[in-house]
Amino acid sequence: MNDIMTVLGPIAADQLGFTLVHEHLLVSAAGLLHSHPHLHGPDPEGEAIAALQHAKDAGIDSIIDCTTFDLGRVPELLVRASEATGVHIVNTTGWWLDVPRFLSGVSANQMAEEFIRDAEEGFRGTNIRAGLLKCAADFQGVTPDLEVMARAVARAHKATGLPVMVHSYPTGQVARRQLEILGEEGVDLRRVKVDHCNDTTDVEYLTWILDQGCFIGLDRYPGRLVSAAARTRTMKELIDAGYADRLCPSHDCICVTVYKERPDGTMPEHHGYFDHNPDQMLFIHRHVLPELREMGVDDDVISQLFIDNPRRFLAGV
Known about the structure:
Shape: globular
Strand content: 15-25%
Strand order of the largest sheet: 10-9-8-7-6-5-4-3-11
Low-confidence stretches: none
């Protein structure tokens, strides 16, 4: 069985345990925590570690941290959080949506080489290696710059064997074009997970993605435009349709980000994402799992969703 690369080094796939496949200890901008740490609250690292410790205490063994460079990735923070809590953290290279003007015109091959270095040598200045590749597109569709990044991720995947996660926009069915690009590059779509799929209840579209061979991330809990209850009903419909072996629930939780001063000049106690989801990485444990069990989903299927599927996605088995 293939090993999985975590921020502390490789582990056997069967060590992953209960895994959340799309979370963020920190979301910011590239270099912002280092240059302006006080924008992130009084103790950003302590806040991130506390959230991860709560997850560990509830029985969460591993997370995939989907924070790329342009989302403010700080690999050393992830190492310290993993060491402090015992939670395995798989981190990500590739690119999200913020492509700066200075990268306009850079080729897919150039970016692929950078992502390969992240996977094989480590994020620059560290020996902390990526265990996953990420590309993205959103409501604007696959822009020319984001197509470059998607093709770079595909080429890095072929060179390294790392799996690919795709930030997508299901309302616009953007994954149709994203998967077309990955297919053109020769990516085996069985190694791909299309994320944020529970931002829609369009089961026909989600079934189309699954029928390409992909995993799907049902990873926006509690979510905003679609209620948490509707998200869980959609998951149950897909389970009943026979797709339980490729569904990956998670939160897209952001534990630390920039705090915003109120109009009256006072500072909030928590950043805005915490106010939206005070359960952080425990929302699924506290709300979704009880609802699934009430719907008749047994513990074997729950284990499949949170143990077997993340292991199979990451290890390619």
